[in-house]
Amino acid sequence: MKKAYNFNAGPCVLPKPAIDAAIAALQDFKGTGMSVIEVSHRSKEWEEVMEECRNLWKELLNIPDNYEVIFLGGGASLQFLYVAMNLLENKAGYLETGVWAKKALKEAKGIGNAVCIASSADKTYSYIPKGYEIPTDLDYFHITTNNTIYGTEIKEDMDCPVKLVADMSSDIMSRPVDVSKYALIYGGAQKNVGPAGVIFAIIRKDILGKVTRYLPTMLDYRTHIENESMFNTPPVFSIFVMTETLKWVKNMGGLKEINKRNVAKAKLLYDEIDRNPLFVGTAAKEDRSIMNVCFVPAPGHEDIQDAFMAFAKERGMVGIKGHRSVGGFRASIYNACPIESVQALVDCMRDFEKLQK
């Protein structure tokens, strides 16, 4: 079988046990004689999966009892609208740290009064803004904790004077999180906890039902809480693989152990970027993401880009081309990316350096 070192930004690399379990369930789900994509979502066998998935989220993140966890289709981009529809009554504030944060703000502006509190657009989103003040008259303050395109990350759970809403699409389950500091956490699964097709939302129950606007049934979080994420047919396969992925996270020792591994992987790669004269990191060092490592050819070596891409491809590297809007290189080293893959990329960078001498 061809060896591939998977650094794709999404869909992400997944744990082998989750892939193996998905293959088995596609053939015969829990001895039903049917595939997991054929069984009724109202069956006892499927309801057990939904319950296990919710319980794993609650256990791994130590989610307080006054929160609910739901799973929906539509991607995180639809959640940009959900958030504003359900929470924006008078004014909302957004921290603009990248493309997705900007898109979230755009959707909110279509619903009501939403403002940018601080932005790092002046330096191509290469840092996380600091020293800004969060107005206390906001309905909520929205942040994007990890920026996949630009490789920056908010690594601490901030204290916020208003309801804090976070898009954690690409760093959820990469570290312990103090959920109690957030009113709402949401994200797409395909960056770190499963395949595309399902989103997670962790919602403090008391924040809902406060807006005066009409909420369409499908856009009301309460609909999905009351129906345990099964108001309509859920994305069963994506939820199944998510469940298996979270079981793997638990078996690896939980989020403290996962974070330890992630920090080690990121350090290995960033140390090589800082050492190698052919490359330079694009994110401010204090804000570097441990999930998405972005770098470009160093000044004076701009002409190596295509050659390095070709060299890396020959060595089995997949998905290291930077986002089309910024160019350069990006290695997404999510939870299931093994340190062996990161070491292979580091070795590739060193060997390429030797060829240039």
Structure summarized in a few sentences:
Helices cover 35% and strands 16% of the residues.
Can you put this structure into words, describing what you see?
- This protein is α/β, with parallel strands linked by helices.
- It has helices at residues 16-27, 44-61, 75-87, 99-111, 221-226, 236-251, 255-275, 305-314, 339-355, and strands spanning 5-6, 67-72, 92-96, 114-119, 140-144, 146-147, 152-153, 164-167, 184-188, 199-204, 279-281, 292-297, 317-318, 329-332.
- It folds into two domains: 16-251, Aspartate Aminotransferase, domain 2; 254-355, Aspartate Aminotransferase, domain 1.
- Helices cover 35% and strands 16% of the residues.
- The protein starts with a strand and ends with a helix.
Q: What's the Cα radius of gyration?
A: 21 Å
- The dominant shape is globular
Count of discrete domains: 2
Biggest sheet strand order reads 2-10-9-8-5-3-4
Topology:
Blueprint: E1 5-6, H1 16-27, H2 44-61, E2 67-72, H3 75-87, E3 92-96, H4 99-111, E4 114-119, E5 140-144, E6 146-147, E7 152-153, E8 164-167, E9 184-188, E10 199-204, H5 221-226, H6 236-251, H7 255-275, E11 279-281, E12 292-297, H8 305-314, E13 317-318, E14 329-332, H9 339-355
Parallel strand pairs: 1-13, 3-4, 3-5, 5-8, 8-9
Antiparallel strand pairs: 2-10, 6-7, 9-10, 11-12, 12-14
Helix pairs in contact: 1-6, 2-6, 3-4, 7-9
